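ESCALATION

Customer reports they have been waiting on this structure for their group meeting. Please prioritize. Original submission:
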Amino acid sequence: MANILESRTSYKTLFNDNQDLYCLPGLPETNDGPLAYLVDLYQQTRLFESEADKDSVRFLSQRRPDIETLLLDSTNLNKTSSLLPLIIEALAQKVKAHINKRQRFTIRLHCRFIFR
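Update from on-call: job pushed to the front of the queue and completed.
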């Protein structure tokens, strides 16, 4: 009787479905999660930039040079981070580039402070 139950037709026996190949819902490597959306959005941006006019567009890699080096894992995906370290790092890269080229360094900074 046990042999008959084991040989019954099922989805797993028909398609040799290996559950170990799938990831659990909510993990960063899911193909329908926020990380997959971010990667797809980044690829679409790169495609758009490859077809854009090089002289009139400020590319994402120019605006956010750190974006290609960001670590994307479950910890960073669910963590809220401050913009201040990103701004300081971007400004530091511009200063380093200026020092290396010994060119005149100009940057415009527009700030608005709202006091209550």
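Sent to customer with the following note: The mean pLDDT is 78.
Escalation resolved.
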